[in-house]
Design goal:
membrane, transmembrane, 2 helices, mainly alpha, rod-shaped
Amino acid sequence: MSALHDKTTDHWVRSNLVRTLAFWSCLLTVEAVTCLGLLASFDYVARVHDHTATWPAVHAKCVFPADSLGDVR
């Protein structure tokens, strides 16, 4: 009975370890993808903000003098 008990316990420990490792690897993968997605979205928002903040000076001919628009470069 001891040999059977050892095999059962060993199998239980291995399956538990595999489930634990699978859980943590999945969780870390999801966190990494989420973090990269957030970083990419922040970069996108920053680029859009920079683009829209400089849009009148870069993409359009201003009909107002530069002084009235503030320091637009």
